[in-house]
Every structure is written in C-alpha cells, then in structure tokens.
Design goal:
This protein has a domain of 179 residues. α3 packs parallel to α22. It is 79% helix and 0% strand. The chain is mostly helical.
C-alpha cells in the first residue's frame, strides 16, 4: 500500500504553479521555454537554498532532458537522412506509384495510415513503428491530399494512444500495472478490455469527425502533373529503382527479425535506425558514386539539423517536467526522490473521499498527473499500487482501476497530449508538436469520458 501521509513543501506548491502557468501559456499559443527556464531556476533555488544551486539546476535539467530524448533525436535524424536520399534519387516517387490505387482519398488514407500504425505498434511498439510507417507511407499519404498534421494525428492516436496504452501483444504496460496492483496481467487485459477498446474507438472516431473537413477537404496532388516533373528529375533510374525496391523489402525483413527475436523498445528502434543509415549509404553510393562520401555527410548533417531544430524547445520544456518525475533525483540529488507530481498524486489519493466511482475518477486523475513528465510508463507502478488500495477500500475491481490508470498515464504521457511526449510523430511528419497536442486534446478527453462511463458500469 503506498504511503499517502505526505508533507507538501513550498517546492511542491511552486511546481504546481509552474505546471498551471506553462499549460496556460500553451493554451494561449505562446512559446513556453522562457517560462520553463524561470521556474527551473526558482525550483532549484527553493530546493537547494542557493542562487548557484538554482542556476545549476537549469543546466542539469536541460542536460538530463537531452539525454532522455537522445534516442528519439538520433532516430528522427537518421530516418530524415534516408528520406532526403530517397527524394534526391526519385525513389520516393517510384514508391508512391503503386500506392495510388489504395490511397484513393484523404479520408481513406487517414484510416489506412492509422490502422497500419496500430498493427505495427502492437508488435513493435510505437517508436520504431513511427519510423517505419513514416518513412514508407507518409509521402503517399500527403500525395493524396492528407495534410501532414492530420497524418500525424492518425499515426499518433492509433500508435502512441491505442496500441501503447493497451499493449496487447508485448504486454509491457499491463505487466507493470498488474504487478503493482497484485493481480495478473491477463486480468488487467481481460477485465479492462472493454475500457481499452472504448477509449480507443471513441477517441479515433471523435478525432475523425471533429476534423472531417480538414481531413477530406484537401485537394490531392495531381499525379499526372507530378509525373512529368518528377520523372524528369530521376537522373539515375537504375539507382532509384533499386533503392525503391530495397527500402520496403529491408524494412519488412526488420519486422521479421523483431518478431522472431522478440526485439522491442530500444532494441527495435536501433534496428530500424541502423537500417535507415545503411539504406541511405547504399543509395548515395548507387546514385552519386564518387560523390557518395560527401552526400552521406550532407544527408546525416541535414538529418541532425532537422532533428535538433525540432527538439530544441522541447528539451527545455521537458527539463521542467522531468523534475516532476523520478528524474529529480539525478538532477537535484538523492535527497529528492519520487517526483513532485507523484507526491501530489499520493496526497490526492490520501485526502479524497472514496466510493467506487470516485476511486475510478481519481485513478484517472492520478494517471494523468503522473503522465505529465512525458513518460507514460513511469507512473504505472503508482497507478497500479493505488488500484490495489482503492479496490480494497471500496470493493471496486482492481484490474479495472489499474486499466483506467494505465490508459490515462499513457495517453497523457506516452505521446498524445503533452507535446514533449509526441515528438517522434511530429518530427517525422514535420509538424509542430504543440499544434498536434492541441488537435489531440478534445478527442482524447472525449475518450476519457467514455472510458470512465464504461468503467462505472463494470467496476
């Protein structure tokens, strides 16, 4: 049973004020890095008691956030490098041609892109799936008239939303929740199944209907016009054709290896990223021969410049929110542990009047709070433990409560609500993470409402 008798300090209240101010600035569509830096200094000053401590916390927090994001930064950079190589050779145009028969309209494309992302993410997890689906399908989706922002929404809600929160195949998330709640993984998946599917279905249907005009109203790129202009740019048709065939074939081989060798998470992401680098090098050699060494350097440089440009403000924002989770111990020292937002969640659990339905509601609130650090999985031990506590106190279903906490923690922190958690999709689609987060907000909250109502019936 988690300890709920917590003493809230001035640092806790200052951090909560910071969260409210930053979210308010985001809603007003203003940039937040300067606000985050200000609160980083104040938190360091209050927590460590010195001005120098406050200054050091700014740098340490940013450095910590950069290390946490580095895997994603490298993946985005290397996939972008491959994308530039495909474009220079004209391979992307050749890849697009057979997809015209399938992706006939932006609306059909939206669902096809989302369902493909869902399938890949169930088996591979979303991060490597974003790279795979983005590298192969995104150019085709945009050619049908689907805007990059709408494409990002489809990939994000189906992948980092439905697939990651349910985690039906790999079962990493439900295993953590179940272990902390004292139940089995199958109980969380089975008893929580109606909630997971309700959340997913209501969210994506709401997203489609709310954005129907934006999704279906765009005019597809005229293939005939592009055929004349783009085909003339393919100077080395043999190299373009080889890379156009090799790219999907090798990525399909990656999928086979991931499934066969049970690679997931960082291992799967590294396989995809490494494959992208090799394909880029092969394309440069085939297409540019003596100039291939310089072209590889150019592609890698362009890829990392793009990734850093996207991530620079997000690293600053993430630095503040990592203080709310377990990162605070590494940033400010071992005297600080557990995370400020986790403390607030425990305080809330210990001071709220409980019934079955109130327990379900607070479980969702706690899950959302723990997700604000941008790591959906970091809050699962807490939501699982609280599910056990709330269940014992009210007689509610522990697996259902665990499922609710898991859904909100991952939908918020795993990459659909907080901008610093959905960077992979935003970067691959070259859209603003803040814009994507705003687009996701209403559909996800409609999904939360539907999930809560279903939970009230089965709890």
């Amino acid at each position: 049973m988690p300890e709920t008798a917590l003493l809230l300090t001035p640092m806790h209240y200052l951090y909560l004020i910071g969260v409210i101010v930053i979210l308010t600035v985001m809603i007003l569509r203003k940039d937040t890095p300067a606000v985050c830096i200000g609160f980083l200094f104040l938190l360091g000053f209050v927590g460590l008691g010195t001005i120098t401590g406050g200054i050091q916390v700014i740098f340490k927090s940013i450095l910590y956030a950069a290390t946490q994001f580095m895997e994603i930064i490298a993946t985005i950079a290397l996939v972008t490098a491959l994308s530039k190589c495909l474009s220079d050779l004209g391979s992307d145009y050749l890849l697009m041609t057979p997809m015209r028969k399938v992706m006939k309209s932006p609306s059909v494309t939206w669902w096809l892109l989302g369902l493909t992302m869902l399938l890949f993410s169930f088996f591979l997890w979303p991060s490597p799936s974003v790279a795979l689906v983005g590298a192969i399908m995104l150019p085709f989706a945009v050619r049908t008239g689907l805007s990059p922002l709408m494409a990002a929404m489809a990939m994000n809600l189906f992948g980092h939303g439905i697939a990651l929160s349910y985690d039906l195949v790999i079962q990493g998330a439900p295993a953590i929740s179940a272990s902390a709640a004292g139940v089995t993984t199958s109980q969380v998946l089975h008893q929580g199944g109606p909630i997971f599917w309700t959340m997913g279905a209501v969210t994506v249907i709401s997203a489609f209907l709310l954005n129907y005009r934006s999704i279906s109203g765009s005019v597809p790129v005229t293939i005939a016009h592009r055929e004349v202009s783009e085909s003339s740019l393919i100077k080395n048709k043999k190299a373009a054709f080889i890379l156009a065939v090799l790219t999907p074939a090798v990525f399909l081989a990656d999928i086979f290896f991931m499934v066969f060798f049970q690679l997931n998470g960082g291992e799967a992401t590294s396989l995809v990223s490494g494959t992208a680098v090799l394909l880029m090098c092969i394309g440069a050699i085939l297409g540019f021969k003596k100039k291939s060494l310089e072209k590889v350097t150019d592609y890698v440089t362009d890829g990392f410049l793009f990734a850093i440009r996207i991530f620079a403000p997000v690293i600053i924002i993430g630095a503040f929110f990592f203080l709310g989770g377990e990162g605070i111990g590494q940033i400010m020292g071992t005297d600080f542990s557990g995370g400020i937002m986790n403390d607030w969640a425990l305080w809330l659990a210990g001071h709220a009047p409980l019934t079955k339905h109130m327990a379900a509601f607070f479980q969702m609130i706690v899950g959302g709070l723990t997700g604000l650090d941008g790591s959906g999985f970091s809050g699962l031990p807490l939501t699982g433990a609280l599910a056990h506590t709330f269940g014992a106190a009210t007689g509610a279903s522990v697996p259902v409560l665990a499922a609710l906490g898991q859904i909100t923690a991952i939908f918020v922190g795993g990459g659909t609500i907080v901008p610093w958690g959905l960077i992979p999709v935003a970067a691959i689609c070259n859209v603003s993470p803040l814009d994507l987060a705003r687009k996701n907000l209403l559909p996800v909250f409609i999904g939360f409402g539907a999930a809560f109502l279903v939970a009230c019936f089965i709890i």
